[in-house]
Structures are given as structure tokens and as C-alpha cells.
């Protein structure tokens, strides 16, 4: 499959049916970092990593019609292959998701299946309903502002908040930050409306400043100076008189943006929405029949607001660009790390645990092919980071890993340094579920009532014996640094981290070879 954007968008929409909170960036990383991307195998493993239990099968049209599930169809075409998300399928018509227009369409079933190769991906999980009433939050916000600012300034503040939201949507669309199917649907309507064409055109960027950033600066600075002026009790007619001057200065910008879109023969609904908000603000200020007013105090407040807004938007966009660059580098690095040949070559050079020892504390599934052995100290901040990463892996695999724990300790069994380790071992011997809660609490807070209540209790003799054996085994293996992490009895290479393993959990080529 060559159409990568089609795959990512389609898989993302499929995942959202079962996990609405899932972020598109995670799908992108899971897919693009796979050595098999863009194949059906990479899609299947990405879905498993997102905790979506799914099946890949090859069937005929009769099996397809009897399924009655949302599914992904693998379509083979002359130039490239693609995935199609099918919401419902009947004898005569089907509802499918168009990843380019980012909306659902109805199509004839025979036309849809004409290039289908028989491969489907489906999940038996229950689809989750999404919150479809986000717009109510904006209404409540609008009413709340009107209650606080009961005079006409409250209405202008509400207009600027609406304008700021639209400007942030423009920034989102420019940098493709958060996927929103409703927004994309209205940004691409037919051949005339296309926000991306306008936003990414040459004139839409004034040197290093884009139209989206300019709109955000305008509305943020307006909010800042209007609220500040209101709070310091500047008369309302002075505020509205100064605002009228600002609106007059905005008219050339509105005209420029409108005529430019006419010249481009493409229209951006978000840009038009920004112009619409400014026009309403201008018309309202002129209808109030308030005289123009200039105040040095208001000019100073406005200049301060513009300066703060410019710096804020500048650092925001720099952060966004840096984050996107780091994400791309992360994907490229992961793609190399997830290559089985690279992984095996690196692991072969690592020191191994040659002697068997059963005195570890075992957490997880003892039959799992993923064995993580750690030497950790309860007082080490780096060990806390390792434990956090392992617990995250444990949750992602639903406990399907082996975590073998060896504690750092002093040879003197009565040493105060061994106190926490001994109590944790005692809890482990009593109840493994309590042990998991205790270790989470300890590494998160470092002090808990759990240890305070147990500190006066007598420790089981077995706890001391286990810790002594663990300390002896550490000396035999010449473990001198904490934390030390071994993966399937091989020291975890510096090039890899436990966070990398979360993307490799379903790469069978890696773990099957490791078992051998």
C-alpha cells in the first residue's frame, strides 16, 4: 500500500470507534515506525498496540455480508493499494469513509467490492459513543461571560473569544495538530472551499507570520486590553470608542483577505469566519453611535497586550514546530530500532545473565516471552523512572510480561538501608496485588502510610532470606550500577529504552528470535 495518508486517516477513524480518546499521533508513530509499513500487518499490529482486539481474515462476499461489523477492506488497485473503512454493508449499498474528503458516503456495494482482494480487518469489541454536544460548552461560556460583564463590553469579549477559538482552529489546521473530522468536513467542501490551499499559500505568510498567527495575536491582545480596561474602571464609552478605531484599521485586512481568496479561486471557511467576527464587532461598535476616542493609557495597555501576544504566539509556534520535528526523528529512529535484524545484531553484543536464579520477585505472566529483569533501589530517582516505564508496559500488555525484580541492599541484614526492601518483599509474600499497589505508591510518593503501619511489625524470616540471596546474586553477576535492566537475560542496550518496547510488543519476529 503506497497511499500512506489514506492508511493513517482510515486506521485512525477505525480506532476512534473503539477508543475515542486515542490520539492520531500515536497511530502515526505505531504505523510509520513499523518495518512492514505500509502493509496490512503493520495496521494489524498498530491496532493491537492500541488495545483493539481485532482479526485479519480472508473471506468471500457471502462471509462479508454476514459479518455485520464495521470493518477495514483491503482494496487492490492498478497504481496502489488502500484501506477502506466500511461502516455498514448491505446487498445493494454500503456506507464507507472517504479519507480524502474525511466524511462518510453511500456507494453501490458492487462498485466498492470490484477491487477488493478478500482481506478484511474487523473487531468484535463494542463501539463507544462519542460526546456530540461540545458546542454546548461554548454556549455556557458565552452566557457566563455575559453574566460577569453585564454591560455591552461582555458581548465584545465573547466575540473576541469566538474569534480566538477560530484562530486557534486555523493554527491547528496549518500545523495539522489535532484531528477533527467535523472541522475537516467543513474545510473541504467541493472544489471551491479548501482551507489548506489558502492557509499554505505564499501570501498567507507575511515573512515569518501566518494569517492564523496574526488573527490569534489580534484577538488575544483585544481580550487583554478590554478586560484590563474594564477592571481598572475606564468608562465603557472610552473603551468602545477606542475599539471603533481598531475596527476601522482592520477593514483593509478584511478586504485584502477577501480579494486574495477571490484571486486564488479557493475559499477558507475559517478565514471567512475570522472576517465575519471582526465585521460583526465593527458593525456593532458603529451602531452604538459612540464617538472615536484615543487615550494614551489605552494605547499603552494595547501595546503591552500586543507585545505579550506576539511573544506568546511566537513561542507557541516554535514549540509546535520543534515538537513535530522531534516526532519525525522519533519515528525514523523507531523504524530502525524495530527492524528485527538491527535489534538482534545489537542484542548479540550485550552481556548476558549466565546463571539461573529463582529468588526474584515475579510480577506478570510467568509464561510471557518478554522477560524484563531489573536491579533497582527504592531510593534512586532513576530507578523510579524505570519502574514507571515498566508499570506502563504492564498496563499496555494487560500484565502479559514477566517482570523479575532484584533489590539493591546492604550485606548487613539489620541495616536501615534494607528496611523498605524487606517490607516490600513481605508484602509480596502476603499478596501480589497489594505489592503492585505498594510499589506504585512508593515510587510515586516515596513515603506512604503503608510502610509507617508495617514498620513496627515483625518481618517474616523469609523476607530476610530472599533479600540476602538477591544481594549475593547481584555480587555474583557483578551488578554495580542501579538501575540495571536486562531484556530476556541480555543487558538492555543504551540505544533502546523501555518506552521503545511499548511500540515493539507485537513484533513477533523480535520475540520469537529472542526465545531461540
TrEMBL record:
Domain Vitamin K epoxide reductase: 157-281
Alphabetical keyword list: Disulfide bond, Membrane, Oxidoreductase, Quinone, Redox-active center, Transmembrane, Transmembrane helix
Top-level taxon of the source organism: Bacteria
Keyword check for Oxidoreductase: yes
GO molecular function, one term: quinone binding
Gene3D superfamilies recorded: Glutaredoxin, VKOR domain
CDD domains the UniProt entry points to: VKOR_4
Localization annotation: Membrane
Broad class of the protein's primary localization: membrane
UniProt keyword Iron-sulfur present: no
Gene Ontology CC terms: membrane
Membrane-spanning residues: 133-149, 155-171, 211-232, 238-260, 267-286, 292-317
InterPro entries: Thioredoxin-like_fold, Thioredoxin-like_sf, VKOR, VKOR_sf
Similarity comment: family membership: Belongs to the VKOR family.
Name of the featured protein: Thioredoxin domain-containing protein
The species this protein was found in: Phocaeicola dorei
Amino acid at each position: 500500500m503506497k497511499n500512506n495518508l489514506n492508511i493513517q486517516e482510515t486506521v485512525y477513524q477505525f480506532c476512534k470507534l473503539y477508543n475515542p480518546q486515542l490520539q492520531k499521533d500515536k497511530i502515526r508513530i505505531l504505523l510509520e515506525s513499523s518495518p512492514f509499513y505500509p502493509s496490512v500487518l503493520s495496521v494489524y499490529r498498530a491496532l493491537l498496540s492500541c488495545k483493539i482486539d481485532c482479526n485479519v481474515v480472508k473471506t468471500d462476499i457471502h462471509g462479508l455480508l454476514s459479518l455485520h461489523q464495521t470493518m477495514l477492506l483491503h482494496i487492490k488497485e492498478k497504481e496502489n493499494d488502500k484501506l477502506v473503512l466500511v461502516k455498514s454493508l448491505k446487498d445493494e449499498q454500503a456506507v464507507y469513509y472517504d479519507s480524502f474528503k474525511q466524511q462518510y458516503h453511500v456507494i453501490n456495494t458492487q462498485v466498492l467490492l470490484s477491487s477488493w482482494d478478500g482481506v478484511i480487518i474487523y473487531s468484535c469489541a463494542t463501539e463507544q459513543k462519542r460526546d456530540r454536544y461540545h458546542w454546548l460548552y461554548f454556549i455556557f461560556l458565552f452566557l457566563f461571560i455575559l453574566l460577569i460583564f453585564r454591560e455591552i463590553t461582555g458581548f465584545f469579549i465573547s466575540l473576541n473569544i469566538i474569534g480566538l477559538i477560530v484562530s486557534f482552529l486555523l493554527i491547528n489546521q496549518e500545523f495539522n495538530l489535532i484531528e477533527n473530522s467535523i472541522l475537516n468536513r467543513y474545510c473541504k467542501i467541493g472544489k471551491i472551499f479548501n482551507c489548506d490551499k489558502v492557509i499554505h499559500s505564499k501570501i498567507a505568510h507575511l515573512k515569518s507570520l501566518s494569517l492564523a498567527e496574526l488573527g490569534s495575536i489580534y484577538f488575544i491582545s483585544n481580550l487583554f486590553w478590554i478586560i484590563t480596561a474594564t477592571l481598572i474602571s475606564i468608562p465603557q464609552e472610552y473603551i468602545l470608542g477606542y475599539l471603533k478605531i481598531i475596527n476601522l484599521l482592520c477593514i483593509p485586512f478584511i478586504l485584502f483577505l477577501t480579494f486574495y481568496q477571490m484571486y486564488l479561486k479557493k475559499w477558507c471557511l475559517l478565514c471567512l469566519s475570522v472576517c465575519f467576527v471582526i465585521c460583526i464587532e465593527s458593525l456593532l461598535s458603529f451602531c452604538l453611535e459612540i464617538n472615536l476616542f484615543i487615550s494614551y493609557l489605552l494605547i499603552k495597555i494595547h501595546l503591552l497586550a500586543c507585545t505579550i501576544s506576539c511573544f506568546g504566539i511566537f513561542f507557541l509556534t516554535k514549540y509546535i514546530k520543534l515538537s513535530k520535528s522531534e516526532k519525525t526523528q522519533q519515528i525514523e529512529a523507531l523504524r530502525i530500532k524495530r527492524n528485527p535484524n538491527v535489534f538482534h545484531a545489537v542484542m548479540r553484543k550485550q552481556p548476558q545473565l549466565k546463571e539461573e536464579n529463582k529468588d526474584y520477585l515475579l510480577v506478570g505472566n510467568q509464561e510471557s516471552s518478554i522477560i524484563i529483569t531489573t536491579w533497582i533501589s527504592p531510593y534512586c530517582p532513576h530507578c523510579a523512572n524505570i519502574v514507571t516505564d515498566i508499570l506502563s508496559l504492564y498496563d499496555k500488555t494487560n500484565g502479559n510480561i514477566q517482570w523479575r525484580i532484584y533489590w539493591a541492599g546492604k550485606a548487613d541484614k539489620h541495616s536501615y538501608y534494607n528496611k523498605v526492601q524487606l517490607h516490600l518483599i513481605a508484602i509480596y509474600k502476603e499478596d501480589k496485588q497489594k505489592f503492585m499497589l505498594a510499589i506504585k505508591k512508593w515510587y510515586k510518593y516515596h513515603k506512604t502510610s503503608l510502610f509507617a503501619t508495617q514498620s513496627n511489625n515483625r518481618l517474616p524470616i523469609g523476607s530476610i532470606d530472599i533479600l540476602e540471596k538477591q544481594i549475593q546474586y547481584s555480587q555474583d553477576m557483578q551488578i554495580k550500577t542501579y538501575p540495571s535492566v536486562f531484556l530476556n537475560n541480555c543487558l538492555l542496550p543504551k540505544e533502546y529504552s523501555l518506552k521503545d518496547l511499548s511500540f515493539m510488543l507485537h513484533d513477533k519476529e523480535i520475540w520469537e528470535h529472542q526465545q531461540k
